[in-house]
Amino acid sequence: MKVMAFVGSGRKEGNTSKIVGAICDGIKENGHDVEIYNLSELDNKGCRACGLCQANKVEYCSINDKMTELLPKIADADCIIVGTPVYMLQVSGHTKQFLDRMFTFFIESNNTTRILPGKKYITVTCSGAPAEAFKNVTEYLNIIFGGYSKMVNAGNIIAGNLGDKDDILSQQEILKQAEEIGRKLN
Ligand SMILES: Cc1cc2nc3c(=O)[nH]c(=O)nc-3n(C[C@H](O)[C@H](O)[C@H](O)COP(=O)(O)O)c2cc1C
Prior knowledge:
Helices cover 33% and strands 23% of the residues. The chain has helices at residues 15-29, 66-76, 93-101, 135-148, 172-184; strands spanning 2-7, 33-38, 79-87, 90-91, 106-107, 112-113, 120-126, 152-159.
């Protein structure tokens, strides 16, 4: 099983990264391949709305950047993990830039996607506010991946009360939940 994990925090080794890391530890226990990417380091140039992906004029994307290199790998993966902090009430900008580039998989005529249906996905959200405050961010990701993309939800982690980068270490139950989600992935 091939798994790609994307961390949308601007801060390396922060809470999002630690929870995603715990999921990946659980996944690796079963011998699966996991690659973790920090979205802030991807030099994602952002969708230019050229329309070439939708018109099938390019395989995945006309932009020459690292994100375009990753699109075929996403197409080949069995599961993707998307972890994001809440920034200004929504997913972080790094995460949004990533989601925009997933447009290559969208088929506008029937509001669904190519290639992604049937793959698994896991989401992680982290906020400064209590976890209940930003369930809508998880719902948003579930609409994109579970709804339009018809991917299979393999877990949603919603963590709150996180300010300093190590705060999640005092919420061991969340890290255990994350490892368990990883362990159950098959
Ligand atoms: C630019 C920015 C905007 C933020 N906006 C919110 C917000 O709207 N609501 C909230 O609860 N927390 C907000 N936070 C706090 C982060 O969501 C929280 O600290 C999270 O744990 C950061 O994830 P990280 O530890 O992986 O970097 C914001 C943090 C930053 C840096």
